[in-house]
Amino acid sequence: MLDDIQVFYYDSNVNNLRNQPSKHTECITQEAANLVFGDLYRRVKNIALFSKHQLNLTGGIHVQQEWSGCELLDGGIPGPLLSRGAFNGADNAEWQFSLHQKTLRSEGLWSTVWNHIEANTHELLCANVYGPVCIKALKNCLHIKKNEVMRKVKPRLRLLQKTLPDSKGAKVTCLATGFYPRHINLILLRDGQPVSDHQITGGELLPNGDETYQMSKSLEVSAEELQHHHYTCTAEHLSLDNKLDIGLGITWI
User: Fold this and answer.
1) Which residues make beta-bridge pairs with 245?
2) CB 155 within 8 Å of CB 237
3) What does DSSP assign to residue 76?
4) PANTHER family from the entry (predicted)?
């Protein structure tokens, strides 16, 4: 993943990369991928077996998940290497390696399993293999996908009202959709004041099928509240010079 855009994946069944941009503009070489992802795959299997043994699990389906990555800070400075794992949905391992200070910090499973030699070996791998490979791949992907990652797409904003037959009230929904990047500040207001979060439902960021996002926030109100109060919706996003404000029955595109 480059930020939130999938650029390729590694198929461990055939030890090969899939869906790279092209052979002439690859993010990572096949040799580097085999080295890094092959090791990651073996480590995930070993963690799963260890966790299964620790929890005295014998049968059934069990899942070990892990995400690992690196980042570029302002000015193209390499940030830390990060990794976090979970077994059956519960966090069980985490480590962070500083490429600048060459130091490793581990929590969870690794703190109890790694001995001094294993920790030192992992530090050397991070400093001389994982770090350089990840940062180079990140820079290559950013060069290839820069226009896609750096694009800004304005949200379409609507404030909707739906009658609730059981309560004779209504649900007021603020919907923002079709925006990129993913970060947005969406606020539902009553008489110009933000509605308290505990009264709001929704607010989850959801992907659209076109590599943009949507978010909605809803509030159930009585017929009396709807009559005596004024409801509006406001959105702030990187694609907008100013925040958007709309009322019921208005769509901003």
Assistant:
1) 234
2) yes
3) G
4) CLASS I HISTOCOMPATIBILITY ANTIGEN, F10 ALPHA CHAIN-LIKE-RELATED, MHC CLASS I-RELATED
Which residue type occupies 38? G
> pLDDT at residue 248 above 80?
no
Distance, C-alpha 25 to centroid of its chain: 25
The token pair that represents 19 in the structure block: 């869906």
Output the CATH code of domain 156-252: 2.60.40.10
Q: CA-CA distance, 224 to 168, in Å (whole number)? A: 10
Which pLDDT value is given to residue 35? 86
**Percentage with pLDDT > 90 across the chain:** 44
CATH fold for the domain made of 9-149: 3.30.500
Contact between 95 and 104 (Cβ < 8 Å): yes
Measure the CA–CA gap between 66 and 36, rounded to whole angstroms.
14
Q: Is the pTM of this model over 0.85?
A: no
Per-domain residue ranges of the chain: 9-149, 156-252
Residue 23 has what pLDDT? 56
- From residue 101, give the alpha-carbon distance in Å to each of 97, 123, 148: 8, 11, 32
